[in-house]
């Protein structure tokens, strides 16, 4: 698929293009959505076709490719041209402050408006695990949250060791009607923190960390999260789930994440696959034929 199928919208265009329907599947088919992956990283250069074959065999009918900084966008877009089941976000990761420029918000806006396959702004957020530059991170976070509200797109939130400042930011916005909807990706917080994000309308996305044996808080969250508010993801190439922990992660392995969530919830894999896919479709506006 080339650009002709997704004509450029102008910045003045008030209407985002509709996300085109996803191919494949029919109602009731087994369906997984990898709601957060990074295939554009070089780890997949050599065997991307085999990787895609495996995600198709695993029942992955849609993938949302996350973006960490604007220079990735052309390559992510090329991947979406190649794999029709791919959608993507545009945004700047909180640890990528060196990629933030004065014109970044307008670059992201133009990219989001140019392609109906852009289904979210992100990944954005706060990460105080490695860096302590909260003010600098907030200065990138706020314009991206504003953009999501302006374009009526959900946000993909990366939040590590920063639940309190993130909640403070979102609560302030909710009070003034300027809080976007979104998903807390790669969830690693406590059940109490989860309850706060849920009350702000956010979805919770579980990654390979939910398969780790000592992740007690994450297990509790997977048990407690309402059925209509959780997603599953790989965050590949990072965080491969058990039994492949430590290896390169890939979208097919989202099945292991869903399987662990199913065991924790006392549900079947098919149930968890269906509900998490329906939730991803609702959040990102995906037209899945299977849910
Ligand atoms: Zn990510």
Short description:
The protein has 291 residues and is α/β, with parallel strands linked by helices. The chain contains nine helices and eight strands. Strand 4 (118-127), helix 4 and strand 5 (155-160) form a beta-alpha-beta unit.
Q: Helical proportion?
A: 25-40%
Question: What small-molecule ligands were found?
Answer: zinc ion
Compute the average pLDDT. Answer: 91
List the secondary-structure elements in sequence, H or E.
EHEHEHEHEHEHEHEHH
The spatial strand order of the largest sheet comes to 1-2-3-4-5-6-7-8
Classify the secondary structure makeup into a structural class: alpha/beta
The percent range for strand residues is 5-15%
The low-confidence runs, each spanning 5 or more residues with pLDDT under 50, are 1-16
Based on Cα principal axes, name the global outline.
globular
Please work out how many helical segments DSSP would assign.
9
What is the alpha-carbon Rg in Å? 18 Å
**Quaternary class:** single chain
Counting DSSP E segments of at least 2 residues, the number of strands comes to: 8
Let me know the largest β-sheet. Answer: 8 strands, parallel
Give the end-to-end Cα distance, rounded to a whole number of Å.
Answer: 25 Å
């Amino acid at each position: 698929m080339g650009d002709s199928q997704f004509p450029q919208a102008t910045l003045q265009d008030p209407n985002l293009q509709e996300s085109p329907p996803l191919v494949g599947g029919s109602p009731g088919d087994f369906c997984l959505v990898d709601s957060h992956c990074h295939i554009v990283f070089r780890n997949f250069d050599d065997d991307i076709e085999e990787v895609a074959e495996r995600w198709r065999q695993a029942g992955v009918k849609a993938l949302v490719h996350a973006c960490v900084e604007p220079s990735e966008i052309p390559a992510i877009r090329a991947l979406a041209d190649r794999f029709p089941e791919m959608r993507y976000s545009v945004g700047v990761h909180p640890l990528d402050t060196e990629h933030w420029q004065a014109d970044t918000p307008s670059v992201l806006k133009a990219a989001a408006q140019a392609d109906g396959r852009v289904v979210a702004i992100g990944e954005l957020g706060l990460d105080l695990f490695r860096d302590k530059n909260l003010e600098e991170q907030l200065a990138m976070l706020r314009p991206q949250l504003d953009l999501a509200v302006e374009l009526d797109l959900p946000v993909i939130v990366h939040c590590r060791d920063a639940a309190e400042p993130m909640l403070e930011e979102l609560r302030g916005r909710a009070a003034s009607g300027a809080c976007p909807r979104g998903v807390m990706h790669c969830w690693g917080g406590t059940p109490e923190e989860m309850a706060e994000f849920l009350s702000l309308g956010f979805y919770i996305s579980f990654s390979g960390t939910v398969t780790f044996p000592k992740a007690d808080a994450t297990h509790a969250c997977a048990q407690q999260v309402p059925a209509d508010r959780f997603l599953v993801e790989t965050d590949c190439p990072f965080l491969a789930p058990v039994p492949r922990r430590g290896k390169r992660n890939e979208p097919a392995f989202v099945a292991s994440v869903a399987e662990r969530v199913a065991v924790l919830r006392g549900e079947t894999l098919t149930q968890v696959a269906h509900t998490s896919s329906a939730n991803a479709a609702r959040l990102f506006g995906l037209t899945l034929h299977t849910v």
